[in-house]
User: What shape does this take?
Amino acid sequence: MSGSNAKFLSKDVITEFRGRGDEIKLYPLAFSEFFEIYDGSKESAWDEYIQHGGLPAVALMQRSTDKRSYLKNLFTETYLKDIIERNHIRKDGELEELLDIVASQTGTLINPKKLSDTFKSVKNVSVHQDTIKKYLEYFTDSFLIEGVKRYDVKGKRYINTPMKYYFTDLGLRNARLNYRQMEQTHLMENAIYNELRIRGYDVDIGVVETNAKNSEGKTIKPQLEVDFVCNKSPERLYIQSALSMPNSEKRIQEQRPYLYIKDSFKKFIIAKDIVGKWYSEEGIIMLNLYDFLLDANSLES
Assistant: This one.
C-alpha cells in the first residue's frame, strides 16, 4: 500500500498487527488473470503485459497514452513521494539515481559496495554503501521491488551479497525508465519471478559450484547460476528462464547447472519457443512459457 496508507508498509503490517492477524500479500494481476480480460491473442497479450504491467486500473484502460501517463504519475506522485517524505530523505537525487539503476539492472546482481564506488568515481558524490542498503530497503518496504538472495545449492547456505531485485509490476518499472531498455530476456525473467511469488513460492537465486582446470592445469571452482530455486514446503523446484531455445547448444548451456545438482527435485527450462512440455534426455522438463503462465498446475503435473 502507499499514499494515505503509509502506516501499512511492509514492516508496519507486522508491527501494528503482531499476534492479531495474518499478512496476505496482494500482487498485480497474474498473466492468466490479465489474459481473461484481454481481447486478443496470448502473444499480443504478453507484449502488452510486459510493457504496461498488471495493475488492474491499467489493464482496464484502452489507450497506451493513458496507461503510460497513469503509471508515471503513480510512480512520481505516490511511490516516490511516500518514500522520500516517510523516510525524511534530503538527498533525493541520489535515491532517484539508485532507483534508475535498479530498474535498468532488473535480474542482475546489485552490490551496494560497488554502487557506492561508482557514485564516487562517476558522479563524484559520496553515498555510503549502508545508505544504499537503506534505500533498497525503502523500495522493498513500499512493495515496489523484491530482493532475492543467492543460495549455494550444494553448500546449502545463503550468500547475502550481492542480491537481485525484481519489480512487483513491470509497468511501473518501464514507466520509471520512460520505456527504454525493454530487453525481452530480463522482462520475461521478472514476469516468471512474479508468477512464482503469486503461486506462493519462496524464491532464491541458485549458485552451483563446479570443478574445472584452468590453462595452467590448476583446479578452479567456477560458479554456475540457476535463475530460480523455488520452495513451497515440502516441494522444491529449479527453473531456468530462456527467451528462446534455437538449437542444441543453447539447450546444453541452460541445462549445464542442473548436471551438478544431484537431488531428485524437478528441474525446468521455460522458453517462449518450446513446444508443449517434455523431458530432455537428462531428465530436465522443457516447458513453454505460455503453458507455464496459463496453467496454474504447470509445475505440479
